[in-house]
């Protein structure tokens, strides 16, 4: 039995922080694989800045030298009505029935789930395990204790909290803004992705 982390994000674009985060989480949580899962452009809660094709190409380029990283376009292929994390995780548990599946997310998303803002949130928390990264001084234990949904499913294994040494200072937004004004965000993202963005004039 292996351990697989599902790392969903817009990846608009993928950055070195995404790669470093995945590596750190895999090391600390003893994951065998990390699946990079670009979100669907059809989601009503997401406003993306480039096409699915460009985001998909950059994710593949960014992870091609790491055998522990896998790119998966499952959510990109889904219709808008079916893009729920609960359904996504159910899919991956069917694909990898012998492995333990973990959803990797930031503490801000844990807050949203605890507040019932995610679709199928009851089933999502009840049936899955999560690796939660500290973010923006959010007290993750307080978030869990203040949410009836979260605290009543906190059995000591549902939430793996990583609260030291993971900073998310460099965002995709920062990189997009730099490209937009003719700045120089080189070295904040993989070189192959940097050159791809320049070649295709993305984020201008």
From TrEMBL:
Which gene specifies this protein's sequence? nadD
| Organism from which the protein derives | Terribacillus halophilus
Catalytic activity reported = nicotinate beta-D-ribonucleotide + ATP + H(+) = deamido-NAD(+) + diphosphate
Q: Which GO terms describe its molecular function?
A: ATP binding; nicotinate-nucleotide adenylyltransferase activity
Purpose of the protein = Catalyzes the reversible adenylation of nicotinate mononucleotide (NaMN) to nicotinic acid adenine dinucleotide (NaAD).
Pathway noted in the entry: Cofactor biosynthesis; NAD(+) biosynthesis; deamido-NAD(+) from nicotinate D-ribonucleotide: step 1/1
Family to which this protein belongs: Belongs to the NadD family.
PANTHER family in the record: NICOTINATE-NUCLEOTIDE ADENYLYLTRANSFERASE-RELATED (PTHR39321), PHOSPHOPANTETHEINE ADENYLYLTRANSFERASE (PTHR39321:SF3)
Q: What is this protein called?
A: Probable nicotinate-nucleotide adenylyltransferase
Tell me its EC number(s), please. Answer: 2.7.7.18
Cite the SUPFAM superfamilies for this sequence: Nucleotidylyl transferase
Domain named Cytidyltransferase-like is located at 6-177
Keyword terms: ATP-binding, NAD, Nucleotide-binding, Nucleotidyltransferase, Pyridine nucleotide biosynthesis, Transferase
What InterPro entries does the entry give? Cyt_trans-like (IPR004821), NadD/NMNAT (IPR005248), Rossmann-like_a/b/a_fold (IPR014729)
According to its UniProt entry, the protein's GO biological process terms are: NAD+ biosynthetic process
């Amino acid at each position: 039995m292996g351990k697989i982390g599902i790392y969903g994000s817009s990846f608009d674009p993928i950055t070195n922080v995404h790669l470093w985060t995945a590596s750190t989480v895999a090391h600390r949580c003893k994951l065998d694989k990390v699946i990079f899962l670009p979100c669907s452009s059809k989601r009503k809660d997401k406003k993306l800045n480039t096409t699915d094709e460009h985001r998909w190409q950059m994710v593949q380029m960014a992870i091609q030298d790491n055998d522990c990283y896998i790119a998966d376009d499952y959510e990109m292929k889904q219709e808008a009505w079916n893009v729920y994390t609960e359904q996504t995780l159910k899919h991956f548990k069917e694909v990898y029935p012998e492995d333990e599946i973990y959803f990797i997310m930031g503490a801000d998303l844990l807050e949203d789930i605890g507040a019932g803002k995610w679709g199928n949130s009851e089933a999502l928390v009840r049936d899955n395990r999560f690796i939660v990264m500290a973010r923006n001084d959010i007290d993750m234990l307080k978030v869990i204790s203040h949410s009836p949904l979260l605290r009543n499913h906190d059995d000591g294994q549902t939430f793996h909290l990583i609260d030291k040494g993971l900073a998310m200072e460099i965002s995709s937004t920062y990189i997009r803004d730099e490209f937009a004004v003719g700045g120089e965000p080189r070295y904040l993202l993989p070189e192959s992705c940097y050159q791809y963005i320049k070649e295709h004039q993305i984020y201008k």
